[in-house]
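Recap from last week: sequence in, structure out.
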Amino acid sequence: MMKRPILFGAFACLALVGCGAEQHSDLRQFVRDSENMPRGRIPPLPEVKPYEPFEYAAFDLLDPFVPRKIEPSKIAGKRHPLLPPEDRRKGPLEAFPLENLKMVGSLSQKKEFFALIKTPDNNLYRVKMGDFMGQNFGRVIDISESAVKLKELIQDSGNDWKEEERMLLLQDEQEAKK
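Predicted structure tokens:
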């Protein structure tokens, strides 16, 4: 019985000798060859610039999503000559943008011509030459049977005021039904 463990030990030693053969010789040769190859140079790291803090003050900026009404500017303490007087009482049609007002008719009384203007809240107003309409200080300069001509004061990006002519055309009956 003693022969079996010895026999088993002998076979185990033979198996280990068989496994000890040179394996991965090609891999070992590649490592030896790569050590002898010229080495590449790693470029130096870029220079790190010092951090400069930036203060973001968004609360001091104007909100681009809030509509603003342009306030008349004052030049050297005086009111701009194109603007109407400050003590002038504003008319009801100056509460609406000009795009929301519609001319629905015209009439004449005693050689004076009037235009009928309809507001978005379906009120009807009669305007004559010199009356103000719209939110840009628009003054009526001409009334015909089919249109009202206005001169508006527009403030450009440089805070300069300029006059521009606008027309409010007579609304067709079909447009009135829409």
